[in-house]
Design brief:
Blueprint lengths: L1 E7 L2 E8 L12 E6 L11 E3 L1 H9 L6 H10 L14 H15 L1
Antiparallel strand pairs: 1-2, 2-3, 3-4
Length: 106
């Protein structure tokens, strides 16, 4: 499940399609399940149209959505998106541990 770009230069229009991973981004696809027009207002109904039944069917068949399509599916309630927690490291704690280990060896 991915976006296929259409439209002209500087005026993008996307189709939400089911496609083989090996096919080109804007090339051959199996089925068109919706459209996305990023130029329309965010509250416009025509900004994103998606056949939720077909999307659910393809998800059951094992289709993997791209990140952007996964967001759309999450907004429509078809599939909940996995929210990954960012890895936060504190450099000071790591350096302190390294210096402590080096200090013990000397």
């Amino acid at each position: 499940m991915r976006l296929s770009r259409g439209g002209s230069k500087k005026r993008p229009y996307y189709r939400i399609v089911i496609a083989d991973a090996r096919s080109p981004r804007d090339g051959k696809f199996i089925e068109k399940i919706g459209t996305y027009n990023p130029l329309l207002a965010k509250d416009s109904e025509d900004r994103m149209k998606l056949d939720t039944e077909r999307a659910a069917h393809w998800l059951k068949m094992g289709a993997q959505p791209t990140d952007r399509v996964a967001r759309f599916l999450d907004v429509l309630g078809v599939k909940e998106r996995a929210h990954l927690e960012p890895v936060r490291r504190t450099l000071g704690v790591e350096l302190h541990a390294i210096f402590r280990i080096l200090g013990e060896k000397r």
